[in-house]
Amino acid sequence: MDGYHPYRSWVYDKLYVQRRGLKPAFAKGVEEFTTKAISRNQFVKDGGIRCPCHNCMCSGILSASEVKLHLYRFGFQPNYWYWTEHGEEAPHIDPENIPSSSGNIDNDDPFTLMQHMVDDAFGPTYDFQNMGDEGNEEENNEEPPNDDVQDFYDLLTAANKPLYEGASDSKLSICVKLLACKSNWNVPQKCLDFFASMLVDVCPFKDSLPKKIYQAKKLVIMLGLKFEKIDCCVKGCMLYYKDNSADIECRFCHEPRYIPRKPEIGIHKDIPVKRVFYMPITPWLKRLYASTETVAQMRWHQHNRSSSGSLRHPSDGEAWNHFDAKYPNFANEPRNVRLGLCSDGFTPYIQASSTPYSCWPVVVTPYNLPPEMCMTKPFMFLTCLIPGPSNPKANIDVYLQPLIDELKQLWSEGALTYDISMKQNFVMRATIM
Ligand SMILES: [Zn+2]
Ligand SMILES: [Zn+2]
């Protein structure tokens, strides 16, 4: 975040996440901005000031009240912490002078953002410290986690161990920070390797640090969710998957699977012409039950149906009740997951090239959650990324094949899942609503 202003955290903090309306601090800040701007005579033209909103980008002169409306609507132009077009100077920030008491800095710290992202990938908090010592003889049906989950908890516990007694950092957090350098500032890999080895050289606790970026990546990948790369026909007729996994050309249009090898320009290996990325949903659903923060919410729909007849959540709808009546076995277990599925075109390279390109992310979301969590970012799971360059249209079901297979499996057999709140393993099933 270039040129961050320690006291103006409100500048890019306009809206509430799940509620309408402007944040009061933002409205107050805009007021402060227009008052200041209008008071600097040499920057006022014809009674108006430059509008620093995201649309005008300081190119047009508007009246103070119009500027306010623009800012309410569009927000400030990027990186306008210091109002240099309105008579302010961007100071050289001495890091010592940033007050440590300002809690907002942490929120905008790129490392914190990265940490949040990793937290999301791992699931929020795992109560793994309190597990495993249940030696009591009380008859409470508590079970240890199944092997899968136990492996995950073990890995997480090991990776999250403080570097030394009293340290706030763990191997995991150091790895995340190193990787964040790469994504935040595009630091070259060689430089990061140098930093990593420098850290190892100067620290007495060498074993708990990654020696190379490769090791940091490996650790984070081990804890993250797995994904599969599946080759597909360039025209989207079929996936090279299951029975077809060994084919080298499309069964329908006979387009080749691989780019022809050209040793003279360095293509020695088989490189597929096109690929889809598939993220299996079962491990992710299991993690919703492995985390103390989400596990109770997954049962929300059981006791919170609307009695007034108003529709606030899919569980208040007729389709939900009809489904329950038709499949009582499934409905009897409130932890069974009901999923929503959606997809839409997405253009990753805006204006970068004249030929349009869109890819199609396929997202699933559990409807078990309460309305304020349902369909929010942390609970929208990207399961499949259909590559471009154009709308898959009718071929979309080709690309959804792995997801459909997984859903069939989840519907008919289910998956053994550990519920951390009950400390029990159960068979979780899922359906698409
Ligand atoms: Zn404007
Ligand atoms: Zn084909």
Automatic annotation (TrEMBL):
Domain of life per record: Eukaryota
All residue ranges annotated as the Transposase-associated domain in the record: 8-88
Protein name per the record: Uncharacterized protein LOC101494926
Classification via InterPro entries: Transpos_assoc, Transposase_21
Record's compositionally biased regions (Acidic residues): 134-148
Segments for region (Disordered): 128-148
